[in-house]
C-alpha cells in the first residue's frame, strides 16, 4: 500500500492486521509492547484494543508485574473469534478442514466430488458448511488447474470451470474473502510451512495425481507461479521423440496408473528430476507417499544419476500430499482471516 495515498479505511485494516498478526505470533502483549513493536502511537493502539476487546476479538490474560506504577493489561487473541474453511476439489472426492485463528483443526471432512458438476454444486456445499459454522471468515479453495488471481485459466477435463472466476463468484455469493490456488502450489506451501523445512527454501513437489501430473515449485521460500500462472504443468514437458511426460507415464492403452512400479515410469520421472536439477537445482523433491515409497525414490536417484552428476541431485523424499495440500490452503486462509473479517 502507498502510504501517501492510503485512505483512513485502508489504514484501519493495516493496523488491525498488524495487531492480529503480532498477537498470534507472540501469544500475548500489552498496549505498550504493541505500540513499540508496530510503531503505532499508544493512544491509537489503546483505541483499537478497546474496540477489539468489546467485539470479543481479544482475551485479557492477566496483568504484568508492576515496577511501581499501574499494572498493565496483557492481551491475547481469541482464536475462536474467526474460523477458516480450506477445501480442495479432486476427481473422486472433495476434502475440507475447518480451523481457528491458531490453525487448530476444528473439523475435517470429505464428500463426493463436485468437479464433475458445476460451481452451483460447490456453492451448495460451501453454504451448508458455513451455515453450520457461521464464524467462518475466509474460504481457501484448491483446484487441479492453473489459477490467475482467482480465475481458473487451465483445468483439463472440467471445461465448466475453465476461464471461471471462482474467487469473484464466491465472494459475491458468500460475502466472505476467498482465495483460489492451484493444488500443487498449495501443497508445496503447506510442506514448507508446516514441516520445519524453512531452511530448505528451494523445493519441488511432484504429484502424479488423479488429474494428471503436476508440480509445485518454491525457490527461496516463494512459490513460483510463472509469467502466465502456468508454472508446474509438467504434463507438457517433452521427454522422448514421440512422448511428453504424461504420455510417458501412461500405459500402452493410454490409461494412467497411480503407482510407479516399472522401469519406463521410473525413467520418465528420473528425466524430470534431472531437468529440475539442471534448471533450478532444488534442495528437495517431494513425492506423495500414496504413489512412491523409499525403495522407488532410491531407484529414481540411481537412474537420475545417469543423466546428471549425482552430487548435484536433490534429496528425494515422500510426504502426505493430502495433508500438505490442506495445510497450504489453511495458510492462505489464515492470511485472509488476519487481513479482515466478513464483508
Which tags fit this structure?
single chain, alpha/beta, disordered N terminus, 343 residues, 37% helix, five-stranded mixed beta sheet
Question: Care to give the gist of this entry?
Answer:
With 343 residues, the chain is of the alpha/beta class.
Molecular structure report:
With 343 residues, this protein is an alpha/beta fold. It has helices at residues 8-26, 31-38, 42-55, 119-132, 166-174, 183-194, 245-249, 263-279, 294-304, 321-339, and strands spanning 58-63, 73-77, 83-89, 93-100, 105-112, 136-143, 146-148, 151-154, 164-165, 178-182, 203-207, 214-219, 222-223, 284-288, 315-319. It has a five-stranded mixed beta sheet, with helices on both faces. Strands 13-12-11-14-15 form a five-stranded mixed beta sheet, with helices on both faces. Helix 2 (31-38) crosses helix 3 (42-55), helix 6 (183-194) packs across helix 10 and helix 8 (263-279) packs across helix 9 (294-304).
Amino acid at each position: 500500500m502507498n502510504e501517501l495515498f492510503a485512505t483512513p479505511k485502508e489504514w484501519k485494516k493495516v493496523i488491525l492486521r498488524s495487531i492480529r498478526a503480532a498477537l498470534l505470533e507472540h501469544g500475548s502483549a500489552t498496549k505498550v509492547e504493541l505500540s513499540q513493536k508496530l510503531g503505532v502511537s499508544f493512544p491509537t493502539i489503546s483505541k483499537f484494543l478497546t474496540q477489539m476487546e468489546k467485539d470479543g476479538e481479544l482475551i485479557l490474560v492477566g496483568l504484568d508485574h508492576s515496577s511501581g506504577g499501574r499494572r498493565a493489561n496483557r492481551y491475547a487473541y481469541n482464536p475462536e473469534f474467526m474460523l477458516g474453511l480450506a477445501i480442495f476439489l479432486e476427481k473422486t472426492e472433495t476434502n475440507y478442514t475447518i480451523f481457528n485463528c491458531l490453525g487448530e483443526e476444528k473439523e475435517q471432512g470429505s464428500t463426493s466430488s463436485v468437479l464433475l458438476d458445476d460451481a452451483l454444486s460447490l456453492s451448495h456445499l460451501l453454504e451448508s458448511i458455513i451455515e453450520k459454522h457461521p464464524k467462518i471468515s475466509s474460504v481457501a479453495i484448491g483446484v487441479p488447474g492453473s489459477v490467475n488471481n482467482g480465475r481458473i485459466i487451465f483445468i483439463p477435463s472440467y471445461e465448466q470451470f475453465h476461464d471461471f472466476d471462482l474467487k469473484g463468484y464466491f465472494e459475491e455469493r458468500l460475502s466472505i474473502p476467498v482465495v483460489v490456488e492451484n493444488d500443487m502450489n498449495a501443497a508445496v506451501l503447506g510442506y514448507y510451512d508446516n514441516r520445519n523445512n524453512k531452511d530448505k527454501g528451494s523445493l519441488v513437489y511432484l504429484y502424479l495425481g488423479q488429474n494428471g501430473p503436476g508440480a509445485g515449485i518454491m525457490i527461496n521460500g516463494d512459490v513460483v507461479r510463472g509469467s502466465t500462472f502456468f508454472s508446474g504443468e509438467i504434463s507438457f514437458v517433452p521427454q522422448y521423440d514421440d512422448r511428453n511426460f504424461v504420455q510417458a507415464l501412461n500405459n500402452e492403452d493410454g490409461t494412467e496408473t497411480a503407482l510407479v512400479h516399472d522401469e519406463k515410469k521410473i525413467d520418465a520421472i528420473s528425466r524430470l528430476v534431472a531437468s529440475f536439477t539442471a534448471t533450478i537445482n532444488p534442495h528437495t523433491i517431494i513425492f506423495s507417499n500414496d504413489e512412491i515409497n523409499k525403495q522407488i525414490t532410491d531407484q529414481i536417484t540411481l537412474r537420475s544419476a545417469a543423466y546428471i552428476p549425482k552430487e548435484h541431485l536433490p534429496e528425494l523424499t515422500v510426504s502426505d500430499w493430502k495433508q500438505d495440500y490442506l495445510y497450504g490452503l489453511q495458510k492462505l486462509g489464515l492470511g485472509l482471516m488476519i487481513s479482515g473479517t466478513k464483508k
